[in-house]
Amino acid sequence: MEFTSILAIYVLFWVLSAFIILPIGIRSHDESGVKMVEGQADGAPVNFRPLRVILLTTLLATVAFLLFYLNYANCWITLDDIDFFGSRSRLN
C-alpha cells in the first residue's frame, strides 16, 4: 500500500472518529445550571475542550487504523468472508 493511500485512509478514520468522540462528555447550559449569554444558541456546550477531543479522536483513529492495516496485511477478514449472498460467485 502506498503512503498516500495510507494517509488518505487514516484521515477518513480520523474524521469518522471525530464524529464519534464529539458528543462524549458535552453538557448544555440547562444540564450544568449555568446562565446563558445573550444571543447564545440553546445547544451551545458549556464545557467544550477541543484539545481533549483532538487527543481522543487521534487515539481512536490510530487504534482503528492499526486494526484495519493489520487485517489488510494478514488477510484475517476477506471479501469472501463477508459475502453472505454469494454475489462474488455470480459475477464470474
List the helices and strands and how they pair.
Layout (H helix, E strand, L loop, with lengths): L2 H19 L7 H4 L17 H25 L4 H4 L4 H5 L1
Class based on secondary structure composition and strand pairing: mainly alpha
H/E topology pattern = HHHHH
Spans of 5+ residues with little confidence (pLDDT < 50)?
Answer: none
Helix content: 55-70%
Total E-strand runs: 0
Strand content: under 5%
The Rg value, from CA coordinates, equals 20 Å
The overall average pLDDT, rounded, is 91
The number of helical segments is 5
Gross morphology:
elongated
- Please outline the major beta sheet: none
Domain count: the total is 1
Cα(first) to Cα(last) distance is 26 Å
Key traits:
92 residues, mainly alpha, 5 helices, 62% helix
